[in-house]
Amino acid sequence: xxxxxxxxxxxxxRMLARVRRAARRxxxxxxxRVWALASARANGVSVRKAAEAAGLSPTRVHQxxxxxxxxxxxxxxxxxxxxxxxxxxxxxxxxxxxLAGRADVAGRLVDEVGWICQxxxxxxxxxxxxxxPVVNLxxxxxxxxxxxxxxxxxxxxxxxxxxxxDIDDLAHARSIDDLDQARIxxxxxxxxxxxxxEPDLAFAEFYARTGTPSQSIRQGAxxxxxxxxxxxxxxxxxxxxxxxxxxxxxxxx
Length: 253
Fold this sequence. Notes:
The protein is an all-alpha fold. The chain has helices at residues 2-42, 47-54, 58-65, 70-82, 105-128, 153-172, 188-195, 203-210, 217-234; strands at residues 134-136, 148-150. Helices cover 58% and strands 2% of the residues. The protein has a two-stranded antiparallel ribbon. α2 (47-54) crosses α3. The longest helix has 41 residues, at 2-42. It is elongated and about 90 Å long. It starts with a helix and ends in a 19-residue tail after the last helix.
C-alpha cells in the first residue's frame, strides 16, 4: 500500500540523515585531531606524549602531522569554527577557567561532559595499567605547589555521582543563579576539590588515617600542627600551620 511505502521511505531517509550526520561529525573530529596534534608538536610536545594522549602510535602521529604548516592549521581551524565545532582554540589557556564558573548553563554542561570523559580515561587506565592514575587536588594556578592523590575506582564512582547530581541541578535551572548543588564554590581551590568530590579534611579523619599520637597536650598540639600542615598542602588554607590557631595551646602556661 502507498501508506506503507511512504512510511518505509521516511524511516529510510531519517536513517540516512543520521548516517550522514555521524559521518560529518567524524570528519570534523578527525580534522580537530590533526589540528590538535600538529599544534601540540608545534609547541614542543614530544611525539610520544602526543601519541599517548591521542591513543595512536608515534608513527601515525608523524604521518598525520608531517605536512601541516601554519597556514594549513589556520585553514583547518577556520573551517572548524565555521562549522560550529567546539575546537579548543587556546592551547595556552588554563584548565582552571571552568573553576571560576560559566556564564550560562550550557557552558557548565560542556564542562561536565569533559569530566565524564576524564572518568572514562581513568577507568581505561585502571583497566590497562598496573599502577593507578594520579590527579592534582590543587588548581593549575598553584603550580609548582601540588597535592597529588591516587585515583581508584571508589574515587571515580564518587566523581560520577557528583557529575550526576550537578547535571540534574543544571537540567532544572533556568540560569546559573538558580543552581544549588552545582553552584560554584568560593575560590578555585574549593571548586577544584568539589569537582573531584573531595571533602575538606577533618581532624578526626586525619588522626585516624595517620595515627598521630595525641595522648598529651604537647602531642595533641603537634598533631594539630601536622593536621594544619596537611590542609595547607591540600590548598584548604593559606595560614602558616605553625602560627595558626591551635586549640591544644589554650590554657598552657
